[in-house]
Amino acid sequence: MSKPPTLTLPPGARAYRLTTARGEFAVHDAGEPRAGTALLLPGFTGSKEDFIALLAPLARQGFRVVAVDGRGQYETGGPRDEAAYAQDELALDVLAQAEALTGAPAGTSASGGRVHLLGHSMGGLVARAAVLRDAAPFASLTLMSSGPAAICAGQQARTRMLIEALGVLDLAAVWQAMRDLDPPEAADAATPPDVAGFLRRRWLANVPEQLVATGRRLLAEPDRVGELAAVPVPKHVLSGEVDYAWPVPLMDDMARRLGARRTVIEGAEHSPGAERPGPTAEALAAFWHDCAAGRP
């Protein structure tokens, strides 16, 4: 899971519940849309806090940046029904969020302009599904540490174990079981106590059915790169130098198939936005500015 370097929102940022046609979503919102608006979707077991370190540098570049807890994630909540977390349902949520941010109904790009959409990891699969369903609201799509299809074999085994555990244990017991399985190097004594406490609180606040449904999606996601390549939206594939969910060469190949810009963040792994926020923000802002200038 992503580990935010801080939980403190930058000056001018605010936390609130974004009202949409599909309900309310907990968000962090920073900046003014002088250069555009960006909507950031977190990954599996993640939340809007994973993007905190990106808010200030992207706002300084002229972007309004809105990071969201998806349905069933952390502070948004959701029903105790796996069907509510089907990928089509989550994609419709993203379209509703984009409409709420721009005032433009689904299927149009009028009013407040289009949104730069970014999805991290599992959030990338949801973002892709939203663009495939209706590309009109989006000025660009960035897939951050998110691959072309299901996660790699090693992570599939861990995810299956998690899904099975969620069927028989409560979230607190599953959290402890996951910590017991962590390698010794994962016990990072440098993690600030407030961040360590947050990670556990966030896990306990997830809706279990959301975790099961999205976990199964990570195991079974088909390769939809060909479909996405045919959509005339500028695309960006960004990752760290190492990735445990999708091998970096696989993302290299996906970018080639998409005709997408490719960025590898030096010194980062699966969560570039949290691990190396400065270079990640620079790469995102450069891509979004280039999209506006017609040179993605």
UniProtKB/TrEMBL annotation:
Protein name (Swiss-Prot/TrEMBL): Alpha/beta hydrolase
Domain AB hydrolase-1, first and last residues per copy: 39-283
Organism: Streptomyces carminius
Superkingdom, natural source: Bacteria
Annotated Pfam families: Abhydrolase_6 (PF12697)
InterPro entries: AB_hydrolase, AB_hydrolase_1, AB_hydrolase_fold
Xref: Gene3D superfamilies: alpha/beta hydrolase
Keywords assigned: Hydrolase
GO terms of biological process kind: glycerolipid catabolic process
GO molecular function, one term: triacylglycerol lipase activity
High-level lineage: Bacteria, Bacillati, Actinomycetota, Actinomycetes, Kitasatosporales
